[in-house]
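Replying to the earlier thread about multi-chain prediction with a worked example.

Input:
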Amino acid sequence: MAQVLLKDLNKKYDEVHAVKDVNLHIRDKEFIVLVGPSGCGKSTTLRMVAGLEEITAGEIAIGDRVVNDLPPKDRDIAMVFQNYALYPHMTVYDNMAFGLKMRKFPKAEIQKRVQDAAEILGIQDLLKRKPRQLSGGQRQRVAVGRAIVRHPQVFLFDEPLSNLDAKLRVQMRVELKRLHDRLETTAIYVTHDQVEAMTLGDRVVVMKDGWIQQVGEPLELYTKPSNRFVAGFIGSPAMNFVDVGIQGSDSSLTAQGTGIRLAIPPVNASQLGPYKGQRVTLGIRPEDLHIAAGGDQAGYVFDAVVDVVEPLGSEILLDVKAGPNSLVARVEPTVRLKVHDGVRLAVNPDRLHFFDMTSEKAI
Amino acid sequence: MATAYLLLAPATVLLLGMLAYPLGWEVWISFTDFSPLNDHGPRFVGLENYRHLLADAEFWRAVVVTVGFAAATTLAKLALGVAFALLLARPFRGRTLVFLAIFLPWAYPASVSVIGWYWTLSPPIPTAYSPFMGTLKYTVDGALGGGAWAFLSVTLFNIWRGSSFIGVFLLAGINAVPPELFECALLESRSAWRRFWLVTVPLLRPFLALAVFLSLTTAFADLANVWLLTAGRVVFPVVGTQAYWLAIKGGQFGPASALSLMLVPFLLAVLALLFRAFDPPAEARA
Amino acid sequence: MVIERPWKRWVYFYIPLTLFVIGTLFPFYWMLITAIRPDAELYRSWRAVNNAPFWTLHPTLEHFRDLFEKTTFPHWLWNTFFIAVISTGISLFCGLLAGYALARLKFPMAGALGTSIFVTYLVPPTLLFIPLADIIRNFQLGNTPWALILTYPTFLIPFCTWLLMGYFKTIPKELEECARIDGATRFGAMVRIIFPIAVPGILSAGIFAFTLSWNEFIYALVFLSSPERKTVPVGVVSEMIRGDIYFWGQLMAGALLGSIPVALVYSFFVEYYVTGLTGSVKG
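Result:
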């Protein structure tokens, strides 16, 4: 049980600056997820915490100890790898017992801990098998089991679910969450899948190009993305972006794009005032678009043409064109529309996002 | 980092001691008149040994023979090896037997199978089919000079053994290429010949390069097999056998060192070619 | 597949192939026949009628018996075995450590060192035997097994390093990282996790190193002189050919006995060998 502190962390390879000035305070017992596209530095950060990569500059502390110069074995951590990294020449039992044996635990204690972990994960029957005799899901469990027998201060997960098929991934996701609730051990989890990040994390860290973009609770990231990248990365289907110009007087600002014109809701008016006469990026989530009905105010509707219809059962995704802009709207499954049909859409005025064109920061 | 050097130490020490040092010594000796038969130690003679060599008709003869030998055997081995590999890449009845027949010449120790060849091609004692082979041998020797038959048998032996190696090696290369690529090519062009040159050869390029390189170096440096098959009848000397005569039989280490060092430029030229083939320009890498 | 007429397939495919197979395998057959042919058939007058040139009606094991009773062949077997085992052991040890370092550890000049080891593999004995002869002479090791035990690693170490480096690269590095997190040192992870997993690779490197030294000819020819000190390949050639007299029967018997085991081993492990080589090509 420990907090983890990353201070001004940097990693440079010969030509690549992989991690840039990362500062992060991971609280005790917290489940934190690092998420971002490949090459964003999330895995490198995790590997530096593990001690598998040298730290170019900055400091990592686990508990009260600065661990910069400690070898991995002395950091009291456990890690689960994407390819499971089970030792192929050992049985499941020996795989799980390896770390304890290396630490010279008494035999009875090893036995007890492995049994307990096996029970938690439901793999008691597999203890005598070799890894190659296991299915992907079973291997995954063994890899997790090997991590938990050690009762480490911190769990590190490096994309542990990416090698599983979609169904198993959802199932293991739930189990990992349950496991964390039960063990209450600090965990750092790396993934490129934003759904995994949102469902698992107490807090989520979004990274890109080595920089931390935003740290926050899942819903906070979703409702208040701090910049355009986070807005586009979190949420599926992704947020729609439209280039617009801010026009009008202070009391009634409008966002004027090609083929689309919306009133600026009062909540945004004060921040957007200084942008009058300039161009900004307007962001609308697909679920904040719906087929216009009588109750919608005139300023918040626009006309579009249906391009593609994707019925998903519980909902329909409408790909529409408003002038040159392509947008996706998530609408009720009862809507009956065909390709090339005209459609009038309305936005949810409380949930519009605006981003500066140059800095890409939220306005 | 210290671990790395520690782990490399044993190999490096042995290789430096038994490889780098001897090579350096050889370079030095090639500038001296050193011979274990002399009373005095090595005396520096400058480029004398090399000057002698370059003026020596025997040396140029050996160079021509060596280069010709290397080129001829490599071409033949490559052609046969590619044919073997393509043949074995497809299933047919009796494939296992053919694989064995192709594989065995390479797997079998050369120093021993070479004797089998000598016995097969030039039986010196009248036996079995020797009248026929004897006639053949004397005809060839009569036409091309004494020892021609023996030399021809060296060439044949080298091809026999080497093409089997290249065949097995390229087969592994073909198996490493995803079959979709060949199937896709099948849809693109009807001509097997065009497919071979446009698809198979480029895909196998790194393997071909290494095969050519191994073949050329072994041919340039072939001493054991030439020695065994011609057994001192040095009518067609290669650089290797000449050096052996000079050094071991004649005790003239200086000239002999210069002689074997003359192989280095050839080896380096081939090595340079190989690295070009291994590191193709960026456009070809994808 | 295009359907062909059966006779066409025979004429253009199977018959040439059969001829080819017979041609390739003939020298082996010829060695075998010679080894079991009685002397009376081997040495005969030029014009005597030979009714069975390609086989024998009186097979005999006489040559094999002579080999063991009248020559130092058993000594050669033992010498070859002894030299091959020790030089393989040394080379395997060096190659294991060096191959691991080159495959796994990041350090300056790693690439250059790897390339230079690759290149040393290709330095031919033709270039080396002269200076090595002098070194052996200076250390007074001539005509002892140690002359060969020290020189064979010059080609065995690069070979083992090369092959094992390729093998280590196929082992996911996460295994080792996991072991290091689990409480092993770098060295501990290497010994307890990587080496056990690499056993097939180590085995094949060892076997091929063994056969390479078993078959070596030039160094053995140069460094050994007394008959009972020789190795099989040199002994067979130098001791059973006296001037112009070839003891053909014994020669072939010795050649067969001394190399059949090696040929078998090769055939058995060809997959490993080729995988090792191609692994190094794919880099």
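The longest helix of chain C spans residues 248-282.

Feel free to reuse this layout for your own posts.
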